[in-house]
Amino acid sequence: MDRRIYGVETEFGLIHRPASDQLPGRGLPPDELARYLFRPVVEFGRSSNIFIPNGSRLYLDVGSHPEYATAECDDLIDLIASDRAGEMIMHHLALAAEQRIAADGFTGQVYVLKNNVDSAGNSYGSHENYLIPRTTHFRRLSGILLPFLITRQIIAGAGRVVPGDEETPPHFAFSQRADHMWEGISSATTRSRPIINTRDEPHADAATHRRLHVIVGDSNMSSTTSLLRYGSTDLVLRMIEAGVPVGDFELENPIGAIRQISHDLTGQARVRIRGGEEMTAVQIQRGLLERIQRFVAEQGDHHEHVGQVLELWERALTAVETGEHHLIDTEIDWAIKKRLVDEVAAQRGLAMGHPRLEQLDMAYHDVHPERGLFHLLVRRRRAQEILTEAKVEEALITPPSTRAAVRGEFLSTARAFGAETTVDWVHHKLIDRPLEAVMVKDPFPVRDERVESLLDKLGDRSTQLRELSIQERSQRAVSLALSDKYALAAQAEPAEPPVI
Question: What is the pLDDT, as a whole number, of residue 157?
Fold first, then answer.
């Protein structure tokens, strides 16, 4: 498969911190806060589960978690930009929610966190989707992919300050998500949290495609970490699909291994391979990387980012193996965060279990571009960024060059006419023409004559209408809240990490 469709679904944490004189000790409960956050969404689409004109999906998930699913992307940078656009949408919805909360007589700030665990120990996910050929042998795929995903946290984890308990002292771990996985492979998502979900919903021609749904990943703030996370997984999949011999890294106890690896920053924790041999996370990752490097040398680059992915992958493993984390502490989330935590702990004489460091951990994931600590580090050149502001703004407004472009034009054009629609990943329907719904199974083409013909029935699709459609897309898709009504002055940069 030369072209691949990628997507990522991100669940966000949501917190209201009231002023000290109101709601002492607590903020609005999650369900009520979510209603405030999604009121513009419901006003826009008459539902809390909608598609927006940049082709993405915006909805409330189980547990009052706001969730954003990127449009279908066939380029890794487009994927990362679309994911970042989701952060911006949530940020501006939070600003709008603060205004509404204030209008109802309350004060305080709304925090949207792109992380995976809250202070009560609840977990929420960042799910990856990869379109793979139906002919891929799933048993072989899972046997290779599981050990890769279990050990991938050492190169792409978000990092976590672990408070510790009676048995385990406080420490820093690679992953936020690892302790909340309960099965290797399963059809469930919330009940058992498998690493790979087997639910077969390709949102494409099921005779040709299958959707690989990966649940184990941490939510990344760093775009360079995201590139390595998705890029390395794509390369492993390509090698599997090509039938290249990989070797046996299948783990005897996948769930025990993922936890053990997460809590050992040396990367030297030994886990048992089926057959009795023991290997470290670094050894497994290096074994896979060496095979990928040979595969790329023989087959050539599959896309323009391959060289960057391989170089960062190699350097991340060296950093873990040698303990020289400075090699990646501007590019890989867990190392960026650990450097910050270590510096604050040293400056203030704080032990790893101190609540202040846990608050610092959360503040790293604040999507507010002025208040969030990751964004502060980018401004201070302590974290690298491969996305430009222009690229993110484009992703807020414009669908990627896939089937998402068909969906985006359908939504924005119908809205320009005031026509109501029903849309999902595949279906396009005008409410007043239910028998003329169009199903678009191919996720790659950017045009579909059947959808265009359906839109033609709304009236004259002139140049003026197309311009109006773009204006509508520009005004509404940028978060349903980037209009002047909701734009607020940027808050002053805090001298210290905010207390959450």
Answer: 98
Q: What percent of the chain has pLDDT over 90?
A: 70
pLDDT for the residue 468: 56
Non-local (6+) Cβ contacts of 422 within 8 A are 429, 431, 437
Q: Which residues does the annotation mark as catalytic?
A: 61
Q: What is the pTM of this model?
A: 0.91
Span 349-366, pLDDT tens digits: 999 989 999 999 999 999
pLDDT of residue 487: 31
The string of pLDDT tens digits covering residues 196-233 is: 888 789 999 999 999 999 999 999 999 999 999 999 99
Asked if residue 480 lies in contact with residue 46, where contact means CB atoms within 8 angstroms, the answer is no
pLDDT score at 122: 83
pLDDT of residue 467: 56
